[in-house]
Write a structure and sequence with these properties.
Blueprint (H helix, E strand, L loop, with lengths): L1 E5 L7 H11 L8 H7 L5 E8 L2 E11 L2 E9 L8 H13 L4 E6 L8 H13 L3 E9 L2 E7 L6 H11 L7 E4 L5 E2 L1 H6 L4
Parallel strand pairs: 4-5
Antiparallel strand pairs: 1-2, 2-3, 3-4, 5-7, 6-7, 6-8, 8-9
Protein name: Acetyltransferase (GNAT) family protein
Organism: Parafannyhessea umbonata
GO molecular function: acyltransferase activity, transferring groups other than amino-acyl groups
């Protein structure tokens, strides 16, 4: 049976999470690990490790606020993939979020990207688990990323505010909306008082 364990600042399970985080995400998409670990003292941050019996299956990192739940990281161990654990983890995330939207950012599908298959699988996984494209993009050094959510009709301003608040100001992308000319540049975020 899959069980979750909330990690706190001094948990021994951080070793497993650290290894999986480094194996699953490029350095450009990771907050410093010391920061992720330190954030676990905040009541709004949930770092959950998942286990099947005593086997480490994966982890999810969530930041909670009034407007929704931001999920910057969800990863399943290589040895546990394609066994339904990711689906079970997403089910638990949605239960934790209750009625709040869960928001994540994933790489835009791109047939020419060197990791095109990984992008395709990741996007398909999130679609199967109730996440939908909001039509909002972040412009990153390595290309466009899709903002996905359990509520695909989120207003662009709400998504922007949610991501800026929940990242603690450490993640400041340029946002663009697919359906309009709505674009917000970093200097406009600074001028508006939101970082």
């Amino acid at each position: 049976m899959l069980r979750q364990k909330r990690l706190r600042l001094v948990s021994r399970s951080f070793r497993d999470v650290y290894r999986l985080l480094r194996a699953s995400f490029p350095a450009t998409e990771m907050l410093p690990f010391w920061r992720l670990r330190l954030n676990t003292i905040r009541s709004s941050v949930l770092l959950l490790a998942f286990y099947e019996d005593e086997t480490f299956v994966g982890f999810v990192y969530l930041v909670n606020c009034d407007d929704g739940m931001y999920m910057p990281y969800l990863a399943v161990s290589d040895t546990c993939r394609s066994q339904g654990f990711g689906r079970k983890m997403m089910t638990q995330v949605k239960m934790i979020a209750c009625e709040k939207p869960v928001v994540a950012i994933v790489e835009e599908p791109d047939e020419d990207a060197r990791n095109s298959e990984q992008r395709r699988r990741r996007n398909a996984f999130f679609r199967r688990n109730g996440m939908r494209d909001t039509g909002i993009r972040t412009i990153e050094p390595d290309g466009l990323h899709c903002v996905i959510s359990t509520d695909p009709d989120l207003a662009p301003d709400r998504v922007r505010r949610l991501i800026l608040l929940l990242s603690g100001g450490l993640y400041r992308p340029t946002f663009a909306c697919q359906d309009s000319d709505w674009t917000l540049h970093p200097e406009e975020m600074h001028a508006s008082g939101r970082r």
